[in-house]
Amino acid sequence: MSQSYPNDVLIVDVSPRDGLQNESETVPTAVKQALIEDLIAAGIKKLEATSFVSPKWVPQMGDNGELLTALAPTRQADVCYSVLVPNMRGFENAVAYRPDEIVIFGSASETFSQKNINCSIDESIERFAPVAAAAKAQGIKVRGVISCTVGCPYEGEIDPSQVAYVTKRLVDIGAECIGIADTIGVGTPIKVQRALQAALHHIDVGALSGHFHDTYGQALSNTLAALQLGVREFDTSVAGLGGCPYAKGATGNVATEDVVYMLHGMGISTGIDLDKLVSAGERISNYLERSNGSSVARALINQRLD
Ligand code: HMG
Ligand code: MG
Q1: Structurally, how many domains does the chain consist of?
Q2: Residue 236 domain-assigned (yes or no)
Q3: Rounded to the nearest whole angstrom, what is the distance from the C-alpha of residue 306 to the centroid of ligand 2?
Q4: Residue 1 domain-assigned?
Q5: Ligand in closest contact with the CA of 84
Q6: Segment 13-58, tens digit of pLDDT
Q7: The domain that contains 27 carries what CATH number?
Q8: Which domain range does residue 208 map to?
């Protein structure tokens, strides 16, 4: 059976946000800044820099404004700096720093919604609606990300109809693209395709992205399964950093290095220099004093040592 793949894919490195939000120790702003600058030097064109959530809930992101201020002098016009915003308070705090995109983040699971953002799915949409409208009025892009689209740490399997429902609600309030997240990495290719297909009832494939955590080692396979449906944008995390503070035991997103290696091997371009990317992942892994979570990075580093 012949299968067509896109010529290029957009990688969104989420490690500064999804990766570092999960560290037990808060990482200094200068280290976050160096990570972001390393990623951009490696050719990353879109990244999640930070989140404007409550510092009581996620202290690791409490330096959001400071970080964006530190990045301002070297800010690149052709790089999309994205930030998470859960409500109007977060938007008001974020807007002074002119993010290129805001991410409103909902859930396909009621219980996860309560645990993560302290409100029901429907309440979250009510909170997001003025945020999306305000962002658009200021020329800021709006992305909606849906957690637990395959499985939930509290509710187990999630029905694709829930994904369709939340996608429609987010699109209706103005989300221009939708991220389908496997928050706890329990998905397998067909289940992930079902979640994506549910979203496709309400949004074009060109506006859909995949956000796959690798807890069960399925994230690269799930990325391939999404590519086969025509998805061309993926959230990934250098060195596989991360997890979600409200999804106990969940590990990081699929490693950026592993996805880039797979894509380049398939003849799909990303604009990313894999060698520089590996160095970026090594630098932050060394800082955090942990082994690099990317298989590709470990292999390439071993080669460098030979
Ligand atoms: P809440 O306590 O229900 O909020 O939290 P509230 O409106 O009742 O306000 C309570 C206090 O928080 C008030 O302060 C507000 O001003 C303040 P007080 O009057 O008591 O001094 N507050 C804020 N402060 C700063 N920034 C804000 C903000 N909002 C209220 N934006 C809230 C609701 C959503 C804020 C809270 O639940 C929260 O911050 N949750 C954190 C969620 C989070 O960051 N989770 C991790 C990211 S999501 C993720 O990782 C999943 C993803 O990767 C996809 C996937 O893998 O699934 C995206
Ligand atoms: Mg995530």
Answers
A1: 1
A2: yes
A3: 35
A4: no
A5: 1
A6: 999 999 999 998 889 999 999 999 999 999 999 999 999 999 999 9
A7: 3.20.20.70
A8: 10-305
